[in-house]
Amino acid sequence: MERFAIIGGVPLQGTVHVNGAKNATLPIMAATVLAAGRCTICDAPYLRDVTVMTRILESLGAEVRREGRNLSIDTGQIDNWEIPENLMRETRSSIFLMGALLARKGKVRVAYPGGCNIGPRPIDLHLKGLRALNAQITERHGYVYAETKGLRGAEVHLDFPSVGATENIMMAAVRARGTTIIRNAAKEPEIVDLQNFLNKMGARIRGAGTDTIKIDGVESLGPISYTVIPDRIETGTFMVAAAMTGGEILIENGIFEHVEPIAAKLREAGAEVEGGETGIRVRGTGRLVGVDIKTLPYPGYPTDMQPQTMAMLSIAKGTSVIIENIFANRFKHVDELLRMGAQIKTEGRAAIIRGVEGLTGSAVEASDLRAGVALILAGLVAEGKTTIDNIYHVDRGYEAIEKKLQKLGAQIWRLEEPA
Ligand code: UD1
Q1: What is this structure's pTM?
Q2: Average pLDDT of span 3-28
């Protein structure tokens, strides 16, 4: 087991390159199943979730090769439609394979993904959409089994704009007979990326990025090569790192439009943010001031930036309120920030943060991916030494984060955890 050790107090300076987006790569890996042949996903990040998805595709009969930063996936020989339970437990993203396998094999069996550290994560909207497209679904003994005699286009109205459900339904609908309309669809940039990938394969989808997506089913799709978008949450994390350490970071390949909600809040808190041709530049200008935040579906403030933003606000001047609207139980980082001297109270979905002058280095534990990176940010500004355990969570979503931070001047090391 590994841990991070950090000595805080260095304003981060320099240029950083963010990797391809995890949340674009995972559904696109699943979508390769839709065409029999070899697809290449360019700039696929080296992350634990990507490795698990690779193993899932291999268990289905695909051949997956790492070629530097690219993933080459040959789905010509897919012969299985059951996702092994142990792999299913390692990443919820395996659920995306439901739509793709139904379209390719006419059936699929997955273990029910269950809850996770940030709260219950039902899949009712995924199943509702697939049922509407003429899949028969049975849920028994912790498994979901879906089968179809032929997918048919339909109108699906999502009760909530779920990212995963929108993607799953899109993947099933591209090979369905007739037209599918998804209303109240999620609008995240990763949905647009999936549309672009599928359309390049030969699908006929329009409207991704708005709340209505129309999909005309096609007979067949062909293998392609595709470059995924840069990770907007990794981008946002470095933006917050610059603002809260009082440094200046240029994120050379960040897409400004994707992080506008984050830029707006950082400016409100007193940081300077510029988005242009050369990337996104963020400069911390002295002590930030508290701001209020509500997490919402895109283009609202991303829930995946909530823990990092809370770490930042814990040392801002004045009081801030964060309302977490997406996940029921996403405040696990609060107890750890309290150990470091933050003053935060939670009440249901609200957290009230009274900014303190500074944090103190402590021994803390990552409870999930974004909570873990929030503690790294807290450690970067804390006085003295912080150690963070359970950093495998961080490795699920950030590639070599300590190396990128070291390049920006941070004193952070990856250590073996003592037995
Ligand atoms: C995706 C992202 C995740 C991000 C989240 C919200 C990927 C791989 N992961 O997760 O990083 O935090 O979007 O931006 O892209 N819900 C239901 N029923 C469903 C599906 C969802 O009630 O069938 C609820 C969930 O419990 C949650 C909310 O909808 O409260 C949002 O979930 P969703 O948008 O589906 O998130 P994911 O696709 O799982």
Answers
A1: 0.97
A2: 97
